[in-house]
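Postdoc handover notes: sequence design on the structure in folder B. Input tokens:
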């Protein structure tokens, strides 16, 4: 399992096509990943943000994707299959793909010059505001707080950071929501010339390490322990279910 992990995580990064012509597959993981997410030249400050994001996203309680990995491992699925189960769930817009929606929202606010009209459109359409709120935190996501603090030291991130704060302040007039890590990832990706999908990629690479740790734990537990039982609560059939006699032939009333 550990051998698989040592191969899998660097392979996830190496499988991405390089954006920068001078990109090299050497050095820390954040350095290798940067050149596959953007063509902008990295600096130590932004690499530190990316490296910190990778660390903060490794694990986070029993998120939906982590639970899927543990279910697969409980069935003694191969490590690659267990990680694939997590990747399948991560793709959802309410999980790993949420940072892409926050990225697009942030670009809209930067384009409009204010969050007010953008948030108003979202609320009128009945859509949830991406990058805000988390069921585990009543206030700001501490992961977002840590990344925002690092990005305050990066001049290029100032416009995106101001737009993010405008989103939070504008939404707060309508709902008590705070920034989560998806909004912080959006500030990083939008201010670094990365595509909207970059946040999900960062999330997937980081969380794979956590999934492998969970799978390792689950392999040591009783197999198939995560097997809930269903209870039918729908309409009753119009007739009783036919009984079966001792000879095995069906008997109908």
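Designed sequence:
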């Amino acid at each position: 399992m550990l051998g698989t992990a040592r191969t899998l995580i660097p392979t996830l990064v190496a499988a991405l096509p390089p954006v920068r012509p001078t990109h090299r597959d050497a050095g820390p993981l954040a350095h290798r990943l940067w050149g596959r997410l953007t063509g902008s030249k990295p600096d130590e400050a932004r690499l530190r943000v990316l490296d910190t994001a990778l660390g903060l996203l490794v694990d986070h309680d029993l998120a939906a994707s982590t639970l899927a990995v543990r279910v697969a491992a409980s069935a003694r699925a191969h490590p690659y299959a267990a990680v694939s189960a997590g990747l399948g769930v991560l793709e959802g817009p309410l999980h790993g793909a949420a940072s892409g929606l926050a990225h697009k929202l942030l670009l809209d606010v930067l384009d409009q010059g204010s969050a007010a009209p953008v948030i108003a459109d979202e609320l009128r359409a009945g859509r949830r505001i991406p990058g805000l709120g988390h069921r585990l935190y009543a206030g700001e996501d501490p992961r977002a707080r840590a990344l925002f603090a690092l990005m305050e030291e990066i001049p290029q991130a100032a416009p995106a950071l101001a737009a993010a704060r405008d989103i939070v302040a504008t939404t707060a007039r309508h709902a008590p929501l705070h920034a989560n890590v998806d909004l912080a990832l959006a500030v990083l990706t939008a201010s670094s010339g990365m595509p909207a999908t970059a946040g999900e990629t960062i999330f997937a690479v980081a969380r794979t390490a956590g999934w492998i740790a969970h799978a390792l734990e689950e392999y040591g537990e009783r197999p198939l322990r995560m097997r809930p039982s269903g209870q039918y609560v729908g309409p009753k059939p119009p007739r009783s279910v036919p009984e079966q006699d001792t000879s095995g032939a069906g008997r109908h009333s």
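Context for whoever picks this up: The radius of gyration is 23 Å. Don't rerun without checking with the PI first.
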